User: Fold this.
Amino acid sequence: MSRQLRWDDCALDALRRLERRDRATARRIVAAAERLAETDRGDIKKLKGRLDLWRLRVGEWRAIFTTDEPGTLTILTVEPRRDVYR
Assistant:
């Protein structure tokens, strides 16, 4: 099942900041998100206590996403694990 991948402004800003420091990790996150949108496969888990929020794990980084709209996967934020759940 292929979905359209959208990036929230907050996620794009975080990804741009990361790309300036660690281009390889930023590329891995983008590749993992694209793979998830295309195949529905990845290291994902539904967040507890949150409606329709999921996390995609890429090493020490987490991408929080939602699938509110049918056929669309929206990345809301990208942050290190130590910061994302606060």
Notes: The first helix runs from residue 9 to 21. The longest strand covers residues 72-80. The chain has a mean pLDDT of 93. DSSP finds three helices and five strands in the chain.
